[in-house]
Structure formats: C-alpha cells, structure tokens
Amino acid sequence: MGALEAERRIAELSFLRDVVQLAASTRDWDAMLRIVIERTTDAMRTDVASLYLLERRDGVLRLAATNGLDRRNIGRATLRVGEGITGWVANARVPLASRDVRKEPRFKWIRGTDQPQFTSMLSVPLVVRDDVVGVMNVQTVEPRDFSKEEIDFLQTIASQVAGIIDKARLQREAERKLREVSALFEVSNVLTSTLDLDEVLQLVVDRLVRVYPGASGAILLREADGEARVRARSGELGKDALQAAHRAVAEARPIVAFDHVAVPLLAGPKLLGAVALQVPDYKEFLDEEVAFVGALANQAALAIDKAALYALERRTAETLRELERARSEFVAVVTHDLRTPLSVIRGHLDLLAESGGGRSAQEAVAQVERLDGLVDRILDSVRGSAAPEVTVRRTRFDLRAVTAAALKELAPLARRHRLRAPRAGAPI
Fold first, then answer.
1. 129 CB-near residues (< 8 Å, 6+ apart)
2. Residue ranges of the domains in the chain?
3. What DSSP string runs through 179-191?
4. pLDDT at site 330
5. For 43-88, what is each residue's pLDDT tens digit?
6. Measured CA distances, 162 to 25, 169, 335 (Å)
7. What is the model's pLDDT at position 227?
8. CA atoms of 277 and 219, how far apart (whole Å)
9. What is the DSSP pairing of strand 120-128 with strand 255-256?
10. Would you give the DSSP letter of residue 389?
11. Are the C-beta atoms of 361 and 369 separated by less than 8 Å?
C-alpha cells in the first residue's frame, strides 16, 4: 500500500469515527444531518453535498439536507423514485457518477433547487437491511472524473449515514410512542375528572402538540349553521393545515400531507368537527402517527358527547326545578285563593242554616262541601299523594234521574242568571 493510499485510508477512518461519535452525541436530527453533509463535502473534496430521504408512502425522495443548493427548498424539493439521477440511483440501488450532468440524459433539473454552476455529480444509495432509505449526492463546479476509490468511499459514508438515520428514526419513534401513550393517559384521566368541554378540548390540543416539539394544533367544532370553527388551539395553524381541517369535516375522512394531518371527530355516525396538527419541516406522517391523532380525536369526540349529555341533564334538571316551583306556587294559590274563601262561605252558610235558611242553605252547604272535596283532590294530586284507585265497569243507569240531579245542582246558577228550563216533555 502506497503512502497516498495509506493517507486516504486514514482520512476515511478518521471521518467514519467522527460520524459515529457525532451520531452518539447529537440528539438534534437536523443539526446532525447538517454536520454530516459538511463533513462529507470536506472528506470528498467537493463543492456541495446533499441528502435525499425516501418517503415510502408517496414513493418520493425529499431533500433533507444540503450545504450548496438552495436551503429554502429543504423539505420541499422532491423527486420520484426513478426520476432524475437521484431517483434512478434509488431505484437501481447502485452508484452513478457523471462528469457533466448537462450531458447526462438521466439528470433532471429541479427549478429553484439545482444551481447551474455545478457540473460533475456522484450519487450513491443509502441502504439499510436491503431497503433503500435515501440517496447522497456530491457535486463539483469543475468537471471531475470520480475514481472507484472515491465512489467506494462515498458509498461507505452513505452506509454509515444510513445506519445512523435508521437508528435515529427508531429512537425518535420510541420517544414519540412514549409521548403518545402519556398524552392518551393524561387525556383519559381528565375525561373522568371534569365535565368542562373547553378544558378537555384545550388539554387534547396541548398534549397533541407536546408529542411533536414545535408543532401547532387545533380542534374545530361544527356549529348550528353547519360551519366548523376553531374551539381550541395551541400555536397558529398555517393556511394549508386549516384548509385540511375543513376538508376533513366536509369529506369525513383523514387528510394527510407531508407536514400536517387532519382527522374528523366522529361520535358514531355524527360528525362533530376535526382535529388538525401541523409540524414544521416534517417529512412524512407514518400510519401509526395518523392513528394516534385519530385516537386523540376519538377522546375529544367522547368528551364532546359527554358534555352534550351533561348539558342535557342540566337543562332537564332546571326544567324539573321550574316545574317544582310552579307546583309549589299552584299549591299556594289553591290553598290560599280557594280554600280560604270556601271556609268563609261555609261559615256564613252554617250561620244562615242555623237562623232558618231552610233548604236553600242546605243545598249551598252541600255545594261548598263538594268544592272543598275537589280542592282536596287537586292538592293531593299536585303534592304527589297516591291517587285513589278507580274501578271502571259497565252498568245500567237511569238517565232521567241523572239529568234531574244535574239540573238540581245547576238550579242556583240558573236562577242567578235567570235561565228558564225547557217545558215538560220538550227535548233537552
């Protein structure tokens, strides 16, 4: 092995050691990728390095880090698998070196991302357990023929980076799942301890965004006019995320994009609103992450349903209290405005009967006693006393006698109003 070869190997080993130490010491995902890209640029003696990560759900490679292309397009610039040199390498799983990309038919210019000054390019796949997870590119301004040793070195770097990315993903997923379980546990506890809907909805949003640092979220509820409006929020949702929430309500299905997700609130067949989450610079929502947002949405729907039942119970209780007040007032009216005058009238009639009032006084006393009994029955029914058992049976009766008795009871009223009875034998 020559001196130059030994020097190159030492540099490679030193670089790999630094990358491993970096992965062990750095917990900031974006910062780690940025440092790896800078170190790769220096180790490969190129002008720029870029990293694209694969989003399996959509089959696209998204720009995750770069130190020479337009950094404003990190998280935005994408290529489909098989598209451009980057997509071709991801699909073929083999490196590709080009001295002049402008003469390479597989190259695709990404407007706003690629820079015209870069000429040569080397791309290698990132593979973990036989699965492609991304592509690493290095570019130079001056034309360059990448040697086999350089290609192998970048592939070694890519393999190390792929392992770091996989490990970091597993760690982030474990931490996220722990935060998800904690959030669901806290929300469940609150549901059993309070019936305040606004308090529960705000807690759901707060715990949701806590799972994703830097995120913002909101819960929208449908109102009487059918429109969905924000009822609880944490942070400010972007326009796209808010529109996704309204779509989730309108279409009654989850809406998932690269940095936001919206899930409808459903209580059985009833559509109540939606939960929306936005995570800046997020690359991809996994199925289990969407399921977690859905689980919190179910908790929120349960809280809304429970609060609605509680509100109905309170209204029913208030109605019963109003009825009780009305009943009490009615008892007071009957007791005071009917019973008292009847007692006075009864006293006068007793005096009239003792002074020789004759048959008329006795009939009046009988009517007063009848009214007094009616008042007693009214009070018993209002106070909740047990009603007397009534037995109904069919029997023959004397219609003439009943009519005569009724006329007899009405006679005082007829005399007062000077009413005349029909002639004998005339139809009634």
1. 166
2. 3-169, 174-304
3. HHHHHHHHHHHHH
4. 76
5. 888 999 999 999 887 788 988 889 888 777 887 888 999 999 999 9
6. 17, 10, 90
7. 87
8. 9
9. unpaired
10. P
11. no
Exposure b/e, 263-281, CB count within 10 A at least 16 = b: bbbbbeeebbbbbbbbbee
Q: Among 9-18, 101-110, 161-170, whose mean pLDDT is lowest?
A: 9-18
- The CA distances from residue 208 to 80, 172, 281, in Å, are 31, 16, 17
Rounded to an integer, what distance in angstroms lies between the CA atom of residue 292 and that of residue 272?
Answer: 18
Local structure of residue 387 (DSSP, 8 states): P
Beta-sheet strands, E only, within 185-227: 216-222
Question: Residue 404 has what pLDDT?
Answer: 81
Average pLDDT in the 108-118 region?
78
Element (H, E) at 384: none
Amino acid code (one letter) for 68: G
Q: Provide the token pair at 311.
A: 């509100």
What is 3-169's CATH number, 3.40.109.10, 3.55.40.20, 3.30.450.40, 3.30.200.20?
3.30.450.40
Q: Which residue is associated with the tokens 């020559």? A: 2
Written out in words, the top-level CATH class of the domain with range 174-304 is alpha beta
Per DSSP, 99 falls in state: S
Instruction: Give the predicted TM-score (pTM) of the model.
Output: 0.52
Closest CA to 212 of 234, 193, 189: 234
